[in-house]
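Handout, section B. The chain below has 361 residues.
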Amino acid sequence: MGKDYFSYYSLSAHPGGVNVYYQSTAPKRYLPLDLNGYVTTPNSTTKQPLQFKDNYHQGRISPIAKRKMSRAIEYLIYLCTSMAFQKPYHGRHFKDKVTFVTLTLASKQVHSDQVIKSELLNQFLIEMHKRWNVDLYVCRTEKQKNGNIHFHILADKYIYWNELRNVWNRIQQKLGYVTRYRENRLQWHRHGFRYNPRYAKQWPYEKQRKAYQVGNRTGWDNPNSVDIHGLEHIGNIKAYLTKYMSKNEKYTEEQKRMFNNMPVEEQLEIREEQFVSGRLWSSSESLANLTGGQMDVCSAVQEEIERVFQNDNKCVYHSDYFHVYNVDIATLRILNCVLLIACFEDYIRKKFPERYLSVIT
């Protein structure tokens, strides 16, 4: 007799949506999918994006990585709580819940990407946890147009910009980047203030002169290597951050053809200069493998899902084997979807026990 298989629907609940997907007890099978950008490795059912066939990311965030990053950002924002602060220089009060910062090198990069990440970025992340109690973070690594590596970091605590800059400058001085910045500035302004028209668009005359005065006063030992991004006027923070941190460089067909026709040595040279070596993004350990609250779909759960659909029929994306309901937890509470909320909150308590009281049984 043949084996009896049956199918059913399960769901996963996340802060920004509910995914309903088809399940079967039959063994999984995969077919080679090279026409749609996927390949199946020999003697394996693991599907990988085509860009990874030579184990190199080509400097681009893959769709799979983008989804994982978006999910990590979603959970980080959900788990943060707004905190009240008083800005020291004008005394006004404000509320914020996260810090979105870009870290750059103070001078021309002279070390490999791997050295910068292991010696500088890693220490910064450790100090971020010890100094400011940052438990959750998402980090995106990119190359600037000048070839320098830089980092976008989203952290679950608000941190003052001057504290961030002082710490980051001290850390990057381990490899001499602040010293090389000072030498560069002293050489450029050796005869007094010298205007640089190359940066006129983003750095006009008055700003350059003010930077010169500040640099002279501080001995050129505190470069502006930290940029805080304000999020207070952003409507959909998750969508904004996901788009900002997962953007890829676009190349024309002609540029691709020219690159492919180059000698291997030149291709490797361009990779070294324009593409990040190693991982393109990372996160705190607790933001990895976010499966969400999971349960099978019974009649009572189906009723709650129908309630979500009736409330907003445009929030649903349908496919043959899964359905995505873009609905946040606040809306689920308004719609009294107690089973979906209980499923999600039970997952949060188990995944992030330090942020929630233990469940009384």
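Note. The chain has two domains: 7-57+288-355, 63-279. Compare this with the example in section A.
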